[in-house]
Predict the 3D structure of the following.
Amino acid sequence: MKLAIIIPTLNERGSLPLLFNEMDQIYQNIKDKGFEPEIIIIDDNSNDGTQQFVEEYSHNSPYKTKLIERKERGLATAVIRGFTETEADVLCVMDADLSHPPALIPKLIENSKSFDIVLPCRNMIGGGAEEWPIHRKLTSMFATSLVKLLGITVRDPMSGFFLIHKKVIEDVKLNPIGYKILLEILVKGKYKNYIEVPYIFRNRAVGNSKMSGKIIGQYLKHLWELKKWQKQKTRT
Ligand SMILES: Nc1nc2c(ncn2[C@@H]2O[C@H](COP(=O)(O)OP(=O)(O)OP(=O)(O)O)[C@@H](O)[C@H]2O)c(=O)[nH]1
Ligand SMILES: [Mg+2]
């Protein structure tokens, strides 16, 4: 079974050596589980040497490694581009800043044998997050609570860390706005079942956050659009 690990990047040169080191450590485990993995990096014209470092890594990596260079910006559209750049049946998406531990990937792919979607989850027993500033904690809690308006009950729906089978999004028209591509997939995707797997979210150790007020605005617009889509669907 082919597995694509899709990683969007924007100026992540500082995180990549650590990330690739952790990826290398799980390579054999992934193979032993019967998966043929590739890494797909979608980079939006970083100016800190991210692309050069990925090139270098691709020559020494145990993984087949593909670098996609885009001129535009946008996390969700970058992830969707990643989906189109692979033949793999199983797609795993994660951030580059080590918040999402590669060590969890073997567990995710094991679960993918029985579930259409596998969701790493901070908000369940065994899961958690390193300490966040209070304003970020409150923003996150508020944003997560709004998701209930869409009838989504998964416990960590705002995450950039998830695994899906390609069939979940095949022939589904995704309309990505901003950051939250997982929400788009949970609302519009075609799946029978999902499972949540606990993990500890690590805070970004290197580099700068790309989170901003603009992204919060985009999130609210995204929720609005998804709600409209749901209403239209029940009418047809
Ligand atoms: N290709 C691409 N990647 C992006 C873009 N914005 C963010 N990313 C990447 O998406 C992932 C998540 O972005 P982060 O900046 O870590 O956002 P966050 O996790 O909400 O915030 P922090 O962890 O506090 O930095 C990282 O791998 C970023 O490099 C973008 O416009 N294009
Ligand atoms: Mg991050």
In short: The radius of gyration is 17 Å.
